[in-house]
Request: fold
Amino acid sequence: MSEKLRPFYDKTVKCPVCSFTYTTTKVRSRFIRVEKIEADFFTKYKDEELNPVFYEVSVCKKCGYAFADTFSNSFSPTIIDSIKSKITNKWKERDFGSERTIQQVIDTYKLAILSGSIKQETSVVLAGISLRLAWLYRIIKIKEQEHRFLKLSLENYKNSYANSDYSGTQMTEMRLFYLIGELSRQIGDRDGAVKFFSKVINHKNRSMESKLVEMAREQWYLIRENDKVI
Reply:
């Protein structure tokens, strides 16, 4: 009789900084069941332990370098030296390669933000990592930290818009505008939210991403209703 398939599997990773080979846990897609998706794309899963976001970041237990699949593969010798100086030299060996607690997941994302910042990853990549960290704090209901990383994500998405580093990625201009609008709304920047929701609603490609237009309209409506209450 064949062994029952587990929701988790091990992926072998070679660290791009120190060349150490290690395994990290991933969730099999067939076990992932979505319950609902919120306005900023935070996804609640029917089985909270099988959240693929928990396993997006790989951490080398030898040198401490952490990265997601969205990170680039290019490293200059200077950047590797900088990672070793700022992370590895202070690193106490930790293994994030098996099933993770929520606190361990938070730690992996903080390491990814640090690693990505030192490596000078693009703003759009850092924005995505910061947004996921905000979601993690939402799960455990720590509003102050959620707000902190929503603001960091918003700042990076705005930088991405300013320097167009999202071009050539899966991030479309409309989705970027929508995220800037929604994160602005969440942190209380009403005018910024209205400005970018308007950019979505009036975008030249609105017929191609009609769902985003619908979402932008819904969030704009929420703002107007809130204005009436105030």
Notes: The first strand starts at residue 8 and ends at 14. The CA atoms of residues 59 and 200 lie 36 Å apart.
